[in-house]
Structure formats: C-alpha cells, structure tokens
Amino acid sequence: MATTTSRLKGDDCERDWIWEREVEAAPWEETRRLSVGAWERQYRRLRESSPFYQRKFREAGVGNSFVSLADLSQLPFTTKEELRQALDEDPPFGSNLCVSPEQVKRVYQTSGTTGTPSVLALTRGDMETWTTMGTRTYYATGIHEHSSVLTTFGAGPFVAGHTHFVLLRIGTRSVPVAPGDTERVVFGLKAGLADTLLSTASFAQYLANRLEKSDADASAIPLTHVVTGGEPGGGIPAIRDHIQRVLGVTVTEVMGIGDVAPSLFGECPHQQGMHFCGAGHIWVELIDPESREPMEIETGAEGELVYTALTREAMPIVRFLGGDIARIEGTTCECGRTSFRQRVLGRRDDMFIVRGVNIYPSAILSVVGEFRPRVTGRARVVRTGSDTSIEPPVPVEVEVTERHNSDPELIQQLEGAIHSRLLFRSKVDLVLESDFGEAGYKTRLTVRK
User: Fold this and answer.
1) 3-class SS at 435?
2) pLDDT by residue (tens digit) across 374-390?
3) For residues 203 and 439, is the Cβ–Cβ distance under 8 A?
4) Collapsing DSSP states into helix, strand and coil, what is residue 139?
5) What does the pLDDT average to over 63-69?
6) Mean pLDDT on 329-352
7) 200 and 441 in contact (C-beta within 8 Å)?
8) Domains defined along the chain, listed by start
9) In angstroms, how far is CA 77 from the centroid of its own chain?
10) d(CA 258, CA 111)
11) How many angstroms separate the CA atoms of 320 and 79, rounded?
12) pLDDT exceeds 70 at position 94
C-alpha cells in the first residue's frame, strides 16, 4: 500500500505517523517481530511495577521465567471486574498503576452502565500511542486531510473523546457537536460544514429516519461518508443499506474498547470488515467463548477477542476479555492492508440461549430492519432474571412511529420473520419512539425488566 507523504515531510510527529503506516502495511510476520520486542519490555514492566499482575501471575503458578507471545495462553485472563477491584485496592488509579502518579497526564472514565465507572490513566506516551492507533483506524475508513468531519463523539469524560486528537493529527477540518444535539447536527450538515459524520449507528439510523420523513431528497445534503462506532450496527446490512440509501453516503465502521484503546479497528471503503489497526501496540487473540481455548485467527473463525497491551505504560493489561464475539472476514484486502478483518456478531453479555442455540440481539436487528418504514430499525430483547437461557416466546420490543403503534399485522409479520430466519418463537411488542429511549448515543440491545 502506498504511503501518503506529500504534506507530512516537515514534522517529526507526522514522520512517525508515516513510519507507523508503513508498519501497518508491512507483511504480518514483520509486525509480529516488532510485537515480540515490545512484549519483552512490557513483561519486565509488569514483573517490576504492577502489584496487580505480580499477584495474578503468582496465583496462576507462573514462575519467574519469561513467557513469550507464542506461549501467552500460559498467563491468566484479566476481567473487567478484576480491574475494578484493583482500583478499589489502591485508589485513585489502582494496584495496576505502573508509573508514578505524577506521570499520569490524562484520566478518562468509562460509562459505568454496568456498575461504578472505571478510571483509565494515561501517560504522555500512552496518549501518543492512542493517537497513533486512532490515526491508523480513521485513515483506514477514508478520513484523510481533505475531509471535513462533523463528530458527535463528546470530548469527555469517555475515551471516545480522544478522537478529537486523532482528527487533529490527520489534519481534517473538525466540526464538534455534542452527543444527541440533533438540531445542530442537521444544521451543520445542511449548511455544508462537513462531508463526513462520526456517530453511533443508532444516531445515524435515527438521522436517516428523520430526514427521510422531513426532506423530499435527504441525499441532496452534501454528506458523502458516515463512520459509525461505539456499538454494533454499521456492519449490519439492513441498517447500513438504509443509511446509505436515504443519505446517499458510504457507511464504514470503527471499533475500540475503553479498557484497551478507543480506536482499534477501522473499515476501509471496500466495506469488507474492520481492519485491525493496533499492530505493534496491541496483541489480539481469538478464543472459544465457552471453553476459552485459543483459536486461529483465520477467515471464517468466530470467537471472543482478547487483548494484551504491548506498549501501554500507566495501566497495562494482559489477556483482557473484551466480551466482543467476532467473525474473521479475511487476512488480506484490496486496499493493501495485511492485518485481519473482522465483524462483531454481538456482546458475550448480550448473548442468550434458546433451546441450545446461541442468539445475539444484533441478529434480530438484521430481521427487524427489513420492515422499514413501518419500523425505525431499533429493537431490543427483554429479559427477566440472570439466566442465560430463555424459554420461547422471547420478548422483543420493536420501535415504531405513532402511525404503527397498534398494528397486529405488523406484529404477526415480525414474529414470523424472526421464527423463519432465527428459528425461535418471539413475542413482539411495538413501542413508540417517544417511549423507546434516546437515540442520540447507544441503543441497549438487551434490557432487564
């Protein structure tokens, strides 16, 4: 893959970016060699400076000898709950802080949707690493220095706000808008302030629905590209095709994970899955979600993504269980990138079992989206209790406009399509847009009542 150098020759930071992009396009064995060296340094850091991992390794029976990347499965997994406990042990940054508190120069927080927010500490080096990976990620999607980007990713306290530093590094025109401020987004797009929109898939879908009803030709808006992130959806055909058709745009998606890095995967305009963009900084494994045995990262494989930070200074992680179930779409691409491509099938926590079959709510979105314009495209599974198994009929809420809030025929058709495609019986309830919940950020695909 050719490296863009025309505007970047004079600045050391930008020259570093060129080098990083050359690494990204290098053969996989070359990036693996770089990762091996980074891991050797990181392993020493963990042994010397992390009470958290010193204890974990000791309890797992790992001796003092070096454990290579090839033998990483000898080391224990790390869970989100363990990282929360580490924070409680030694606040404010936890027993996994590997630098002095004075070296912490930025602090993010997680959303805390499943409990107390987590604290994420970064050194100057960590900030630069996140910017490097984010630059690769968004550059892969087609956002380059000539782009004008309206972003709905807030500046804080969440890690998605780091995207603003990434856009600055790429050299785009940036138009920040607060999350959920629909009126300002519509104004900015109609005024021609941006040709690219960054948002969650939920918001892009909501925007397409709104403009489809209010504008005779929504595709006339000078918008050419939508990049979705923060949740599954941008890769679901029913959602993607609707956004592209209504707005006249190309939709690509990005993905990160707060405890690891806000930007790790970016989909190029070929739209064949998200390229891994963290080579040299993050080591990725694929494991069986049930047995947790390692799997080969090869085309067609489906498993849970696991992450090890190779260069993170403040709060390194080893074999972090990300919770995303992904399908490997390939290991090469026409764009020239050599890292693997993946699509997220769903979250492990959202998965439920119906008579021995694993189901992810995102599969329901694929079915529901085909019933537009009678539905908006949003849906969620209603669960009671903590059991993973659900006896059919499975309760499913589907968002509709006021016109279709009482439509027995639509309910029957939705239930029939879900049964035909996903092989389980459902009980569909139609929920008005005003009652379903905010579309400005993420849509929870599972709710407990």
Assistant:
1) helix
2) 999 999 999 887 788 89
3) yes
4) helix
5) 91
6) 90
7) yes
8) 7-280 (3.40.50.12780), 352-448 (3.30.300.30)
9) 20
10) 9
11) 6
12) yes
Provide the CB-side half-sphere exposure for 385 (13 A, CA): 6
311 within 8 A of 299, measured Cβ to Cβ: no
The residue written with tokens 């405890």 in the block is 259
17 pLDDT tier (thresholds 50, 70, 90): very low
For 422, the token pair is 């996903």
* In contact, 177 and 198? CB cutoff 8 Å: no
How far apart CA 175 and CA 150 sit, in angstroms, is 4
How far apart CA 294 and CA 19 sit, in angstroms, is 31
CA distance 179 to 108: 17
CA distance 16 to 164: 19
Specify whether the backbone of 279 is left (phi greater than 0), alpha (psi in -120 to 50) or beta. beta
- Would you state the pLDDT for residue 64? 85
Q: What are phi and psi of 5, to 5 degrees?
A: -125, -5
Q: 384 — phi, psi (to 5°)? A: -120, 140
User: 413, exposed or middle or buried, with CB in 10 Å at 0-12, 13-18, 19+?
Assistant: middle
Distance CA 83, CA 95 (A): 9
Yes or no: say if 15 and 9 are a contact pair by the CB < 8 Å rule: yes
Question: pLDDT tens for residues 229-255?
Answer: 988 889 999 899 999 999 999 999 999
Helix axes 124-141, 12-25, angle to 10 degrees: 60
Can you tell me which residue has the tokens 């960054």?
A: 198
Separation CA 205–CA 440 (nearest Å): 10
Question: How many whole angstroms separate alpha carbon 23 and alpha carbon 372?
Answer: 43
Distance CA 96, CA 89 (A): 10
DSSP state of 140: H
Residues 173-183 have pLDDT tens digits of 999 998 778 99
Q: Quote the distance between the C-alpha of residue 311 and its chain's center.
A: 20
Q: Are 299 and 341 in contact (CB under 8 A)?
A: no
pLDDT of residue 8 exceeding 60: no
Q: Helix 51-59 crosses helix 80-89 at what angle (to 10 degrees)?
A: 130
Strand pairing category for 357-359 and 375-383: unpaired
Residue 406 has pLDDT above 90, yes or no: no
- Report the DSSP beta bridge partners of residue 86: none
> What are the angstrom distances between the C-alpha of 280 and each of 30, 245, 252, 306?
10, 38, 24, 15
Q: State pTM to two decimals.
A: 0.87
- Which residue type sits at 413? Q
DSSP H or E segment with residue 323 = strand 320-330
